[in-house]
Amino acid sequence: MALRRIVIRTEGQGLYEFTREAVAFLEAEDAEEGLLTVFVRHTSCSLLIQENADPSVQRDLKAFFRRLVPPSSDPVMDWIEHRQEGPDDMPAHIKAALTQVSIGIPFSAGRLLLGTWQGLYLFEHRDLPHRREVILHIAG
Questions:
Q1: Is the pTM of the predicted complex or chain greater than 0.85?
Q2: Where does the pLDDT of residue 1 fall: very low under 50, low under 70, confident under 90, or very high at 90 and above?
């Protein structure tokens, strides 16, 4: 069993790829075969496996979620009660609830078994910069 805590600094809403950090962790642990579990320790961001070749995919995802869950200052969101931390906070919690905070990725021969165009991303749902903690855990 091996565990590593990494920090991802965000600059506002968007996708932040950290595939390299996960690969480096497997290499440092000389892990041959097993499952890499990735867990983010926050309630207003999430994790995704997504295409890492065409940046328009990331822009479209960000636009989709902005349309799906607009800021609480938008009149269609007047039903929201939780507003103490700004108009992006409760929508960030909703977006995180719609996505995931933990992902399991199998690996073999020391390599993540991701598809050709897949990357591992932290999906930041807040407007301001944040310091996000992600836990990487190897089970073999």
A1: yes
A2: confident
